[in-house]
Design a protein that fits this description.
Layout (H helix, E strand, L loop, with lengths): L1 H8 L7 E3 L5 H7 L4 E4 L3 H9 L4 E3 L8 H8 L4 E4 L15 E3 L4 H13 L1 H16 L3 H22 L5
């Protein structure tokens, strides 16, 4: 993270805005004194945060689904996430977002700078992210789940294994 901050110091076109709260908030405030910390946001306020953003960064490795990433994608914001956790499962790297190595600040910085320095790529990824998010209805999610269940059941039947 420190290298990203050092690179940011050389850039006047980057402003970090952090929405949410957590156990390292105070540490982040010390590391990023120029950043804006909004705290927990929801509803209209959260929608405004998304609408005002150019890139969504979510380096968490412990989030189980990554709903905030899907919300950003639905807001046509290209996400940058860690290659671990729930957000990683919904991103097609290089198509609907960028994926950084977990816990690797250099990797995260590289992905962010890629989108900052290439507005055309950022726009293309944002549009693909939006299209993906629009396809994520509960009906489609459950259909994929049931399809997978049927595949597993068929594998058991073909292999001759009987479920208990």
């Amino acid at each position: 993270m420190q290298s990203l901050l050092n690179k940011k110091k050389k850039r006047k076109n980057v402003k970090f805005i952090l929405a949410g709260d957590g156990p390292i908030r105070e540490e982040l405030k010390e590391m990023m004194p120029e950043a804006i910390f909004l705290g927990y946001q929801s509803g209209i306020n959260l929608s405004r945060v998304y609408a005002s953003s150019d890139i969504f960064v979510f380096p968490s490795t412990t989030e189980t689904f990554g709903n905030v990433t899907l919300e950003a994608m639905a807001s046509e914001i290209p996400p940058v996430c860690a290659r671990e956790g729930g957000a990683y499962g919904i991103i097609n790297d290089g198509v609907t977002g960028l994926v950084a190595e977990p816990g690797d600040a250099e990797s995260l910085a590289e992905k962010l700078l890629t989108l900052i320095d290439d507005p055309q790529k950022r726009k293309i990824i944002a549009k693909e992210a939006y299209k993906y998010a629009q396809e994520q209805t509960w009906e489609k999610i459950f259909l994929r789940l049931f399809k997978r269940y049927n595949e597993i059941i068929n594998q058991y039947h073909l292999s001759g294994i009987r479920a208990a």
